[in-house]
Amino acid sequence: MSMVSKRILKEVDRLRQDPVPGIVAEPIEDNIRYFSVRMNGPNDSPYADGCFTLELYLPDEYPMLPPKVRFLTKMYHPNIDKLGRICLDILKDKWSPALQIRTVLLSIQALLSAPNPDDPLANDVAEQWKTDEKKAIETAVKWTALYAERVVRNDVAKRE
Amino acid sequence: MDSLFELDDPSDWPDTLPHMRELDQLLRCPVCKEYFATAMVTSNCGHTFCSLCVRRCLTQETKCPSCRAPLTESELNPNRLIDSAVHTFKSGRLQLLAELKTAAQASLSAAHGESRKSNSESGPKRRRIGTRSTGITGNSDPNLKDKMSTRNAETVSMVDLTTSDVEQMITSDMDMTNSDDDRDVRLAPPAGKRDSRRASNSDDSDFMPDETSQPTRTRPAAGSQASVPCPNCQELVRQARINWHLDRCLAGKSTKEPTPVSMRKQAGPALVLQQASMTAKCVLPRPTKLAYSLLSEHKLRRTLKDLGIPTKGDKQQMQARHVEWVNLYMANADASVPVSHRLLLRRLAAWEEALARPADSSKPALETEGDVAEHAAKYADSFASLVAQARAVRAKPAKVAPDPLTLPL
């Protein structure tokens, strides 16, 4: 077990020293298992202009069990529901202990640029995505401007 | 924190040495990100993991952690070469890193004489682990041949050192602080170094109470391995046993040596260690996997008792403990130098302690109801002021709202 928390320390250290481009993941205060994540939307996706916040929690059994990740920013995406829960195979049955925080966050970023309406979590969004993709993407851009931007502004306001 | 956990990582190598980074990465287990401890290779997909890591993974899911191909424990095979490679790499790593650092410093400082001076000052301090017993001091010139030969000498001494570490752990009953050395202890000695160990092994056997027919056995000399013909029956007998053999040969008794003695002489360090733990009366039976749902709590408790592991807690706790014990035991059996079962029991206790601790302290904030209540009590004042603010804001629009509405009119 001490070996496992050592692995977490190592991952934190690596994330700090060699961060994934466009992603900042930091443990919250004194809890090494609970992370606050800020993720930039991938370029050439409806989410490109937004910076999204997520929370990530490593269960006691990590890395035998996957981390729990959730969007805190409201998202218009067929694989992300209104509670921010993410439908991603490696967070569920395709998890492997050889994966790590870095790979999980990269996969989530990739999910933003490649929505999969055939395996939906938010049914209405997926339906919209299938019937009228152009309009769905418009909505996603709108939501990004509405909610993701505001997250950034709020942070600036707090700092001031 | 840094003193507790020495975080070694492939990124310790400078950017200018990508191959060393890669090699460092390759010698690490994909699951725990540490150097392989008792490397096991999977027979169908060929991936390598620490024995304990892969066994823990397989209790969770019977798939290869790297490629998710179906995998069972019977498809794991020890990979001794990796163990030896890791051992050698680890012993050279710190020294090499320190020398890279001093070389970089030397190239930085302009005056040549000045740099040499600083090298000899900082050298021994930095390489305190790498050069534990080598003869070189402050040798900043990377002379490869010199380095190779000294590293060999160092490996030998480190192997001796780990042997004595193990003995200390076996003999000292209550000392829990040694558990950090576990990984070193489990390392395989490089195959070529076995011979140099033998001399120390015969010393080791003095360490243990002798249960054979030689109550006052003196320390055998190095030449005691040589065989000499018996003057009576011409049979080749080892020099150390010739007097005993001759006594029995002349008396017409069986000259067949008792098995424990002959086994000890032939066996490598593993057997010596097993015997050491036997004399400490701590050999525990090999556990088998159980179908827990078919066992009552009472029956499971009895099984744990028979296995010699703690029986406290409810069924769920006992089940988790048994699973971990099977993994620890089997991984230890895979190791080329297994540790004593007493040490294994300590690791089991440490595992259980670590498992119990996070439940109290490192759950995310406000996970339990008690936390919520505590949080509410702590911030009652700020909640109250926030509520007041919100009410004020809600009250205001009622007054202000009519104005913009009336303006357009």
TrEMBL record, chain A:
Active site (UniProt): C87
EC class of the enzyme, as a word: transferase
Superkingdom field: Eukaryota
Keyword Ribonucleoprotein tagged: no
Pfam families assigned: UQ_con
GO molecular function, one term: ATP binding
Domain UBC core, residue spans: 3-149
The entry's keywords: Acyltransferase, ATP-binding, Nucleotide-binding, Transferase, Ubl conjugation pathway
EC number: 2.3.2.23
Gene3D superfamilies per UniProt: Ubiquitin Conjugating Enzyme (3.10.110.10)
Family in the record: Belongs to the ubiquitin-conjugating enzyme family.
Annotated protein name in UniProt: Ubiquitin-conjugating enzyme E2 N
Species of origin: Coemansia aciculifera
Chain's gene name: UBE2N
Automatic annotation (TrEMBL), chain B:
Catalytic activity: S-ubiquitinyl-[E2 ubiquitin-conjugating enzyme]-L-cysteine + [acceptor protein]-L-lysine = [E2 ubiquitin-conjugating enzyme]-L-cysteine + N(6)-ubiquitinyl-[acceptor protein]-L-lysine
Gene Ontology MF terms: single-stranded DNA binding; ubiquitin protein ligase activity; zinc ion binding
One cellular component (GO) term of this entry: Rad6-Rad18 complex
Cell division recorded as keyword: no
Its EC number(s): 2.3.2.27
Domain RING-type: 29-68
Biological process (GO), any one: protein monoubiquitination
Start and end residues of each UBZ4-type domain: 227-254
Family to which this protein belongs: Belongs to the RAD18 family.
PANTHER family according to UniProt: E3 UBIQUITIN-PROTEIN LIGASE RAD18
Name assigned to this protein: Postreplication repair E3 ubiquitin-protein ligase RAD18
Taxonomic lineage: Eukaryota, Fungi, Fungi incertae sedis, Zoopagomycota, Kickxellomycotina
